[in-house]
Amino acid sequence: MQRSPEPKFVIEAGRTEQQYWRDLWQYRELFYFLSWRDILVRYKQTAIGIAWAIIRPFLTMIVFTVIFSNLAKLPTQGTTPYPILVLAGLLPWQFFASSLAQTSNSLVSNANLISKIYFPRLIVPASAIVVNFVDFLVSGLLLLGLMIGYRYVPSWRIITLPFFVLMAAMTAFGFGLWFASIYVKFRDVAQVIPFVIQLGQYLSPVGYSIDVIPERWRLLYSLNPMVGVIDGFRWAILNGDQSLYLPGFVLALIVILLFVWTGIYYFRGVERTFADII
């Protein structure tokens, strides 16, 4: 009886550089596993579970509506009820902010996995965005309920919404790759990320309309890519009252693509050192 040949594992010099994107596809099951694990861990041992995905934006929406509409007397967009205006900006921002925080911390929190076996490390920060996308979908039910309550009907532009969700994910991914790569070497990043997110929330039109920004400053304001994302999100959801600021949208798209491209380039450049440093 002949014995079947034993499988061979050949380590070739420069293989990871030559077949990196092919390896990324071959390790897709690891991507699914890490994503599912993060979803399970997020609400493990919580009393109300995934309901937090609705409670947090609901409470934030109430606070922002009271501060910006009732106290600051900022105008809404056309005839749009102010709570809907706030929630249409809050959902993409929270998706971006949570994804950025988790992506930036993903390599350090998976140090045991990274230091033991080989796999394309790009899988780790990419999988961190999936759990926040699930939260985003659940939070979307709150916006849907609010629109039904106000009898607010969106226009045909609602079909473009997935594109702006993709923009928010790409923004978090691009910035997250930079932070995650630097975080491996400098743990100061743990102090910087919450500050950046908190500051970014006030520098983005989350609780107010972009129309309150003077016209001459609007393009400069749009250097923050989340301005274009939130403006596009509202354009897709709100009815004919909302217009898209096209120069700001194009500028945001350019900034996002630039950060994703440079983020991947830098991440690939330092990726081989992660296992030694971490």
Q: What is the overall shape? A: globular
- What would you report as the Rg, rounded to the nearest angstrom? 21 Å
Counted by DSSP, the helix tally is: 13
Helix content: 55-70%
Sheet with most strands? none
Classify the beta-strand content into a percent band: under 5%
- Total strands: the figure is 0
Q: Mean pLDDT, nearest integer?
A: 88
First CA to last CA: what distance? Answer: 49 Å
Low-confidence region ranges: none
Instruction: Sketch the topology as an H/E string, one letter per element.
Output: HHHHHHHHHHHHH
Query: Which structural class do you get from the secondary structure elements?
Result: mainly alpha
List the helices and strands and how they pair.
Blueprint (H helix, E strand, L loop, with lengths): L14 H4 L1 H7 L1 H15 L9 H20 L10 H28 L1 H4 L8 H27 L11 H25 L3 H14 L12 H7 L3 H13 L8 H25 L3 H4 L1
